[in-house]
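Colleagues,

For the teaching module next term, I've prepared a clean inverse folding example: a structure given as tokens, and then the sequence designed for it. I'd like students to try predicting residues themselves before seeing the answer, so please don't circulate the second half yet.
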């Protein structure tokens, strides 16, 4: 069934891919900061929020600004648009008790569950893609000093895999659901050295990080790959 889908952040890393893929079968409104006001009052079968700040370090450095461009935007979108279902792309950082960025994402989730009668929250691990140079993997390839130690462990999923998951949920529908989304297990940053074929460089103040979520509930619905295999796909 063809649906009308609004995608907030339609020009972003995840949003642009969702616009392209969902646009094959559905009517898509790509909503950005440039055309936002023109869509206020519009009605959608599904509203996808792929907007807001996605830079953990920036959100932790400027939590008030992160709140403004992310959490406040969530609140506004719930009242500026009409929709049957609301899908929010959240973050693994919600599990980090010391993260201002994660706290703002958690606040966003609470607002959505309070004001939306049908929602899907996807808490996403780090997302990687061949076409976009972002994150520790890109830094490792280019020899940029890493801000995490060699024994840090990160959970990854590819952008293609993530978008496929979103497409399936949109097609099948949802009610009041929250899922962790990521690959199985983690990869140690130190293991990237052999994978990228060059020595890793670390900042003097690099800190140990462990970013992992239990994705067993999602695994009941999707054939997930191991984080290592997702990383291999983009190298």
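(Answer key — instructors only)
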């Amino acid at each position: 069934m063809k649906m009308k889908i609004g995608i907030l952040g339609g020009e972003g890393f995840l949003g642009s891919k969702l616009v392209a893929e969902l646009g094959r079968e559905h009517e898509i409104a790509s909503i950005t900061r440039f055309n936002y006001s023109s869509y206020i009052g519009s009605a959608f079968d599904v509203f996808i929020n792929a907007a807001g700040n996605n830079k953990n370090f920036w959100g932790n450095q400027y939590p008030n600004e992160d709140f403004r461009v992310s959490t406040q935007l969530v609140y506004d979108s719930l009242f500026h648009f009409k929709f049957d279902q609301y899908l929010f792309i959240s973050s693994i950082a919600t599990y980090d008790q010391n993260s201002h960025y994660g706290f703002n994402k958690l606040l966003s989730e609470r607002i959505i569950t309070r004001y939306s009668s049908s929602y899907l929250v996807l808490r996403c691990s780090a997302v990687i893609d061949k076409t976009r140079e972002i994150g520790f993997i890109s830094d490792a390839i280019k020899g940029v000093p890493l801000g995490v130690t060699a024994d840090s462990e990160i959970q990854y999923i590819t952008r293609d895999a993530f978008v496929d998951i979103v497409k399936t949920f949109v097609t099948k529908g949802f009610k009041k659901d929250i899922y962790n989304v990521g690959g199985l297990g983690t990869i140690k940053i130190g293991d990237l050295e052999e994978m990228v074929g060059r020595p890793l460089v670390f900042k003097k103040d690099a800190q140990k990080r462990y970013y992992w979520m239990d994705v067993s509930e999602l695994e009941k619905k999707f054939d997930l790959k191991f984080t290592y295999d997702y990383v291999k796909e983009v190298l």
